Amino acid sequence: MALLEIRNLSVEFETVTGRFRAVDGIDLSVEKGEVLAIVGESGSGKSVGMLAVMGILPASAHVTADRMMFDGRDLQNLTSAQRREIVGRDMAMIFQEPGASLNPCFTVGFQIMEVLRIHMKLGRSARRKRAIELLEAVGIRDAADRLSSFPHQMSGGQAQRVMIAMAIACNPKLLIADEPTTALDVTIQKQILDLLMKMQADQGMGLIMITHDMGVVAETADRVIVQYKGRKMEEADVLSLFENPQNRYTQALLSALPENATGDRLPTVADFMAEEAM
């Protein structure tokens, strides 16, 4: 049985001109210990689909699915309280921008310990000890002293590590990483990816990596889903996808990589899609 199984997931939003479908009939599954990459351009519905799975879209979103199972439980039939027990404990998410996701009014120590208080029911001293262990695990030096730091007192890489510490605090069965290296320099990007992959391997958790970076896909994924305009274009194991992409859009993504450039101008995805339409 898959850890996560989604069938025919759609997400619509009300707009001034009517309903806009951001996710259109997506199927996906993740096994325990597997790394699934969801790749596509900005606006392809990657993040929205996973926010729907987490149950944290705004009330204005209209979410439907034929099947939405996590670890043997039907997510669509859970009460709000039951859903909150799962989200943050068994299923966690690392968001794109730690600066926007961490609360600027509270220390990072408080924010990590709050997760432990709610989901693990740990006492004060146990929460502090675990928070220090988590910061050390994600590579933050002087962890005990950093508990009292506010988000704005940390670099982008440090703040992202705090987000990872919060996400793995309860040893989740499934971790969703939404563009975890956005806006970080190349050196920090590699450190964050290496950290995520080590933790995924050590804990045997399922990992969904949301990205538009095909290099990240090649480095991390076992299996890949390619999305375009809310729809799944292709799904394959990572080696097959890179060696023999079947869908025209996937071919366009790969052909637009710098290492595949020919001539004086790097082709774009739009170039290939325009050729397809002709």
TrEMBL record:
| Residue ranges annotated for the ABC transporter domain, each copy included | 6-254
Q: Does the keyword Nucleotide-binding apply?
A: yes
Record localization: Cell inner membrane
Q: Which Pfam families match?
A: ABC_tran
Topologically, how does it sit relative to the membrane?
A: Peripheral membrane protein
Q: Which SMART domains match?
A: AAA (SM00382)
Primary site of residence? membrane
Give an example GO cellular component term for this record. plasma membrane
PROSITE patterns hit by this protein: ABC_TRANSPORTER_1, ABC_TRANSPORTER_2
Sorted keywords for this record are: ATP-binding, Cell membrane, Membrane, Nucleotide-binding, Transport
Question: What residues form the membrane-spanning segments?
Answer: none
Q: Could you provide one GO biological process annotation from this protein's UniProt record? A: transmembrane transport
**What Gene3D superfamilies does the record tag this protein with?**
P-loop containing nucleotide triphosphate hydrolases (3.40.50.300)
Q: Which GO terms describe its molecular function?
A: ATP binding; ATP hydrolysis activity
Superkingdom as given in the UniProt entry = Bacteria
What is stated as this protein's family in its record? Belongs to the ABC transporter superfamily.
* Name of protein: ABC transporter ATP-binding protein
**Taxonomic lineage of the native organism:** Bacteria, Pseudomonadati, Pseudomonadota, Alphaproteobacteria, Hyphomicrobiales
